[in-house]
Amino acid sequence: MATGKPRTLAAIHPNAGLQAAYARKLTTLVEAMHKSLMRFVLAQYRATPPLAQDDVAPARSLEATMAELGDRWLSRFDAEAPTIAAWFATAAKDRSDFAMADTLRRAGISVKFQWSPQVRDVFTATAQAQVGLIKSIATEHLAQVQGAVMRSVQTGRDIGGLAKELEERFGVTRARAVFIARSQNNLATATITRARQVELGIVECVWMHSMGGREPRASHLKAGRDKQRYDTAKGWFDPDEGRFILPGELPNCRCVNRAIVRGLD
Predict the structure, then answer these.
(1) pLDDT above 80 for 153
(2) Do 92 and 190 contact (CB within 8 A), yes or no?
(3) CB 33 within 8 A of CB 138
């Protein structure tokens, strides 16, 4: 790091296009799973007679159908998760690097980023986290659907009532997929940006609140108003969380930072 007049660089924001593309990939999988479940489960449910007091065969048949469908869709998500995760991690790194290089260029600093141990670690952690999250979408949704179906059989609910509940479950799962895309895009951008800043010898950043969201965190609002400076490597100590964090790390946090530089060799 060379000495010189301090400059505050422009913030690196998560790429909105990547967030939208990731959300589309996840919701496309969720929608395909939902249509499959609706088609097969409702057809089987129509063919299932009301439960007699001593007859559990219809319920077992429906349960077997659910188990078969569940295994099929868990396998589908297991197969596609690594590919989607690797695509997202690569895209997040490339877009973050491009945005940072462009910000530095506009400040008169030319940098060509290479793979480094720190960035490779962040990339690997990002990809692994996505695999787990993508798989969890199917696991949680299938468990909820199976519970809804078996409750309907036990209570003798009509098919319309079951269909309505399955649609509601689908809406919840779809919303969760969109949330994963948004929160992981924010987190990946934050961690990759921090890794590059540390590599460049940038030791201090300024917290910048997004001024978005319906329920902003009070501590983040204050940090933004105060132009809170913090150690790049450690992050900022959030008093409400009781630990050091990065902007964009917490769920639904859209905050970013502005790096402070004195000039680079």
Answers:
(1) no
(2) no
(3) yes
